Amino acid sequence: MTAKKENATKNGTSYVKQQTEKRGASQWAVAWRRFKRNKSGLIGLFMILTVFFVGIFHNQIARYPARPNPDAFKPLYENEAGEPPSLKHLFGTTTLGTDVFSDVVHGTVYTLYVAILATFIIVLLSVSIGVISGYLGGKVDDILMRITEAFLVFPTLPLILVFARIFQLTLKETTWSLPFIGVKVPIGLTTVILIISIFGWASDARAIRGEVLKIKEAEFIQAAKALGSDSVNIMIHHIVPNVLSIVIILASLTMASTILTEAAVSFLGFGDPNSVTWGYLLNESYNDLSITWWAEVFPGLAVFWTVLGFNLLGDGLSDALNPRLRE
Amino acid sequence: MSDSYILEVKNLQTYFFTEAGIVKAVDDISFNVERGSTVGLVGETGSGKSVTAYSILRIVPRPGKIVNGKVFFNGEELLSKTEEEMRKYRGKKIGMIFQDPNSSLNPLFSIEEQLTDTIVAHERISKQEARNKIIEMLAKVGIPEPSTRIKWYPHQFSIGMKQRIAIARALLLNPELLFADEPTTNLDVTIQAQVLDLLRTLKNEMKMSMVLITHDMGIIAEMTNNVVVLYAGKVFEVADTKTIFKKPLNPYTEALLATVPRLDIKKKLEPIPGNVPNLIELPSGCRFHPRCKYATQICKEQEPPLEEVEPGHFVACHHWRELE
Q1: The pTM of the whole model exceeds 0.80
Q2: ∠ at Cα A14 (A11, A18), nearest 5°?
Q3: Which of A1, A321, B221, B319 is the most exposed place for a label (fewest CB within 10 A)?
Q4: DSSP one-letter code for B304
C-alpha cells in the first residue's frame, strides 16, 4: 500500500517536473529534442560536421599542399603517379601525380564555399520573392509567380553551362582579394555559384510563398494591420519569423542540390579550371577511369557523403521543425 | 455631419469577388455611432458584422472590395483617404480587438515586442518610454506584475489574460473609437463577465466610443446604448437598446430575442429555422422571408425599405405594423 503510494507520488513529481520542463523550454529547445530522437537526422548532422571539420583543418589533414603549389605533384617526382590506395596515399594517386586524398581534402573548402554562398543567395532571393509575392498577392503575385515559373521550366543545367562558359571566357583574373579581410576568392568559381543561384531560387520561392499564404490568414496578421502596422513591418516582423522553420529546412536541402549542380558543371568541364573542386577531380581523371579507378571513386564518394549528409539533415530538421507534416 | 457622431457609415457595400460568384457580405449598411456611446452590431454568423468593421478600417481581406459607401470618422471621410493616411488611423484613433486572443497575438514574440510594434507604427519614442507605456497599460487591464510579465510570450498566459493583453494593445494609443469583434466568444462565462466589465470601465475612463460586434443578445443588453441588427449584409433594425428588447418591430429581431432564455417571461426557447442564406444567391424580395413566420407574397417580391417608424427607430420590414 505504502509502496504503491510512494510510487504514485514519485510518478506524480516526475510528471510535474516533466511538464514544467516542457513549458520552460524555448521553441528551439523543443525542436532540438525532437531532432535528437531522429536517428537519420543525427547521422546527417554528424556527416556534415565531418565535412566542416575537414574543410576547416584541410591544411593540417592533407599530406600535400593544395594545387597550384608545385609540391602537390610531389608523388610524380617520387615516381608514385597512378598508384593504387596504400598507407602513404590513402586514396591512391592520379596519373598526373597528385595525391587523391589531399586533393579531396582541399576540395572540401571549395565545396563548402559553393554550398554556403549559393545557399545564402538562394535563400535571400527566394525569401524576398516568396514573402513579397505571397503577402502582397494580386498583380504583384501574378507577375512574380510567372517569372518564377519561367525559371522553373528552363532546363537549368544546359543554361548554367552556357552562361558559365560565357563568363569564364570574359574573365581575366583568377582570384580577387576581398577588401579588408584579404581572403582570396576564386572568381571563376564565384561566377559559377552566382549562375547556379540565379537558376536555383525558383522552387524554394514557390514553397515559401505557399507557407506565407497560410500564415497571412492568421488573425495576428489582421490584428497587426488593424493596429496600424504597414506592409513592410508586417512582412519583416510577422511573416518572415513564422516561415523561418521552412527556410531552414529548404536551406539544408539547397546546400545539397547546389553542391551536386556545381559538381555536375565541373565534371562536364564547364567549371572554374583554377579551383580544384570535387567535380573538377572527376573530370580530370575521367579518361583514366580504367587505369586509376580510385581517382574517380573517392571524389565521387566525397560528393555522395556530403550531399547525403545535407539531405538527411534536411529531413531531420523537417521532422523537428514541422512535426505536423509527419502525421 | 453632425458633431455628436464620431462615426457615420453611409450605404456601405463590401463585396467578395470569388470564383463562385459575388458574395455581398455587406450590402448597403448605414448606421451612426454617437460620441461616447456603445453601439452593438448583432446578427448571426455571416451577417456581415465583422466585414463591416474591417471595411471601416479598410482591412478587408482579398478578394473583398469596398464597392460603395462613405465612412465619416470625426467628420472626415475615410474611404477616400490614401493607404498611408488610413494607416495612421488604425491603432492610433481607431483600435480593434479580435475574437480569438490565441491567434490574434503572434506566438513568436514577447508581449513587449508586440505592443512596441503598435507604438512604433505611430510614434517615435524611446524604448524605455515605450516600455513604461506598455507596463502602465498592462496594469490598467489587470495583468499582475506587468513589469516582469512584459517579457512573457503569449503561450505563458491564460486565454483571459491574453484577451486582456489584446485589449491593452488596442488601447495603447488612446483611440477615440474601439471595435470589439466578439471579444468574449472564446472565453469562459466567468471570464467573459470580467472582460466585459473591464471594457466598460476602460471605455468610460478613456472617454471612448465603442462598436461591439456580437451574436449574444445578453451582451447587447449589458453593454450597449444602441443596437444595429444585421441580416445577410443588410440592416434590419436600428434602435436604442431598450426599444430593441421592449418593442422589436422586425420579425428577425423578435426571433433573435426568442432564442435567449428569460427569467421574467415563461416561454419556450424558439430557434430560428433554417440558416443564413447563401450570400451569392440571395432570396428574392426580403432576404429573411424563407425563415420568417410573418412572410406573405409581398415579402417574396419586394425588398422592404428601412423606414423610420419613430425617432431613432428604423425597421426594414413590410409587416412591422402587425408586430406593434
Answers
A1: no
A2: 135
A3: A1
A4: P
- The closest of B156, B167, B143 to B110, measured between CA atoms, is B156
Domains of chain B: 5-93+175-323 (3.40.50.300)
Are B201 and B148 in contact by the 8 Å Cβ rule? The answer is: no
Place of cell 586524398: A101
Query: Would you list the DSSP string of B211-243?
Result: EEEES-HHHHHHH-SEEEEEETTEEEEEEEHHH
Contacts for A187 with CB less than 8 Å, ≥ 6 apart: A171, A173, A174, A175, A176, A272
Question: Cα A183 to the chain's mean position, in Å?
Answer: 21
Which 3 state secondary structure label does DSSP give A94? Answer: coil
Angle of helix B127-140 versus helix B111-120 axis, rounded to 10: 110
B82 touches chain A (CB under 8 A): no
Cβ B203 vs Cβ B120: under 8 Å: no
What is the greatest pairwise CA distance in chain B? 67
What is the model's pLDDT at position A325?
Answer: 55
The DSSP code for A235 is I
Q: For residue A251, give every residue at least 6 positions away whose Cβ sits within 8 Å of its Cβ, in sequence order, or none.
A: A119, A123
pLDDT of residue A123: 96
Give the residue carrying C-alpha cell 524555448: A26
Distance of CA B153 to the CA centre of its chain: 27
CB contact under 8 A, B106 and A137: no
Is B87 in the A-facing interface, judged by CB distances under 8 Å? yes
ipTM exceeding 0.90, yes/no: no
- Tens of pLDDT, residue by residue over B186-203, are 888 888 888 899 999 999
| Among B residues 148-177, those touching chain A with beta carbons less than 8 Å apart | 156, 166, 169-170
- Is the CB of residue B116 less than 8 Å from the CB of residue B127? yes
| Yes or no, beta carbons of B87 and A228 under 8 Å apart | yes
Q: pLDDT by residue (tens digit) across A63-107? A: 888 888 888 888 888 888 888 888 888 888 888 888 999 999 999
**B38-47, B97-106, B272-281: least confidently modelled range:** B272-281
Percent helix, strand, coil in chain B, to 5, is: 35, 25, 40
- Residues B32 and B8 sit within 8 Å (Cβ to Cβ): yes
Task: State mean pLDDT over A32-40.
Answer: 86
- Tell me what pLDDT residue A9 has: 45
- SS3 (DSSP) at B98: coil
Strand partners, B96: B179
Measured distance CA(B254)–CA(A280) in Å, rounded: 83
Give the mean model confidence (pLDDT) for residues B10-37: 89
Average pLDDT (A190-219) is: 91
Give the separation between CA A188 and CA A163, rounded to whole angstroms: 12
Touching check for B116 and chain A: CB below 8 Å? no
* Separation CA A91–CA A300 (nearest Å): 12
C-alpha radius of gyration, chain A, whole number: 25
